[in-house]
Automatic annotation (TrEMBL):
Pfam families the record matches: EamA (PF00892)
Subcellular location: Membrane
This protein's record includes keyword Signal: no
Keywords tagged on the record: Membrane, Transmembrane, Transmembrane helix
Name the UniProt record assigns to this protein: Permease of the drug/metabolite transporter (DMT) superfamily
């Protein structure tokens, strides 16, 4: 654990690469996430909703634990666990549970509404959490993209609200919070450790919950159900999160989140190809409009940190210049003895530099304590005798 008095700042992860590489990693994560709803639909054909969520988390924890053990990952610092807890509650438990329960009463195309509004929600939370100030062009493109995706998804589903809408919109907040905290932690921890430790943290809850769910809910093992469960566990829950957090750390949370505007369109394409759902005439125009909004957000950038916004956690120490940090062992300024009636003010002695034990000696005057307020020696205890 980092010493608070140390002059050495905590090591920050060098994200490296170019903005293009970060964008490619984030886009790869979006492609992995676009198959989450179709895969969940497959998993629900053989497993119950609670079994799908809990077994998904347990399988992902097994994969993450293997990565943590193989990489000999160190235990996170104490200040990182609050963010890891937010990631665990948001993307390990909250979003999978709420969306899985919603998919029992709604189809995949209607569930794409939540993905359409998720980038905007993530950008807002990122601006509040990190103090970034995206440009007006960024916000205009983000709002326009969210509006296009939402209108397109509602149009494809007939525009009628379903019982799962409340669950879908509730999942927006928890997922966006998990994305923001995960992207922030990915600057000081590798992305695979962020999601890995989040999965390990909730294992005491997910493991017994999976055992109980499998006993209470019926299970029908088929190729579709097992394949869907494996995808959401290994890819959506872990591998996709690894590249997603890495990309967010490279290009910024707000900027990376806008790549998810393309996720609903991809989800509808997968739904048509894998689930046989019909795609309307508005699919291609909506896809082109979303891609234009994504291009605008990527060119406008995500903005800089707002002046005066405090930097918390290990980032605060890393931002302090080395010369400005307090160093230990700095000699104190010379003290001046108070004016005595016997004469003018006399500078008090300063502590001499340490000498080797064989040559270090003290004079009788140095062995006495400092003078008191009336020029007398202060009686602070037994006097030390000078060495003979």
């Amino acid at each position: 654990m980092t010493d608070k008095n140390s002059a050495i700042a905590p090591t920050r992860i060098a994200v490296g690469g170019t903005a293009l590489a970060g964008t490619a990693l984030a886009a790869l994560g979006v492609a992995a996430f676009s198959l989450t709803f179709p895969s969940t639909h497959w998993a629900l054909t053989g497993f119950g909703a609670w079994s799908t969520v809990t077994v998904r988390a347990v399988l992902a924890t097994a994969v993450a634990g293997a990565f943590l053990a193989a990489g000999r990952a160190r235990f996170p610092e104490r200040e990182h666990w609050a963010g890891i807890a937010v990631v665990a509650c948001g993307v390990v438990i909250g979003f999978p549970l709420l969306t899985t329960l919603a998919l029992r009463s709604t189809d995949t195309s209607h569930a794409a509404v939540v993905v359409g509004a998720l980038p905007l929600c993530t950008a807002v939370l990122a601006a509040l959490r990190t103090g970034a100030r995206p440009s007006r062009t960024f916000w205009a493109a983000a709002v326009a993209g969210a509006a296009v995706v939402t209108a397109f998804s509602l149009g494809e589903s007939g525009g009628a609200p379903t019982a799962g809408d409340g669950l879908l919109f509730a999942s927006l907040l928890v997922c966006a919070a998990g994305y923001v905290e995960g992207g922030r932690l990915a600057a000081v921890l590798p992305g695979w450790q962020v999601i890995g430790w989040a999965l390990v943290a909730v294992l005491p809850l997910t493991l017994p919950a999976a055992a109980v769910s499998l006993c209470l809910e019926p299970v029908r093992l088929t190729g579709e159900s097992v394949g869907g469960l494996v995808w959401v566990a290994v890819v959506s829950q872990f591998l996709g999160m690894v590249v997603w957090y890495r990309g967010m750390a490279a290009i910024g949370v707000a900027r990376a989140s806008q790549l998810q505007l393309a996720q609903p369109v991809l989800t509808l394409v997968w739904s048509a190809a894998l689930l046989g759902e019909h795609l309307g005439r508005a699919t291609l125009p909506a896809a082109l409009a979303v891609l234009v909004c994504v291009a605008v957000t990527q060119r406008s950038g995500s903005g800089a940190r707002r002046p005066g916004t405090p930097v918390t956690g290990s980032s605060a120490t890393a931002c302090v210049p080395r010369r400005a940090r307090p160093e230990t062992g700095t000699p104190a300024p010379a003290r001046t003895a108070p004016l005595s009636p016997a004469g003018p003010r006399v500078p008090a002695r300063t502590a001499p530099a340490e000498a080797p034990a064989s040559t270090q000696t003290k004079t009788p005057s140095e062995a006495l304590p400092p003078a008191g307020p009336h020029g007398r020696v202060a009686d602070d205890g037994p006097r030390r005798r000078a060495p003979r």
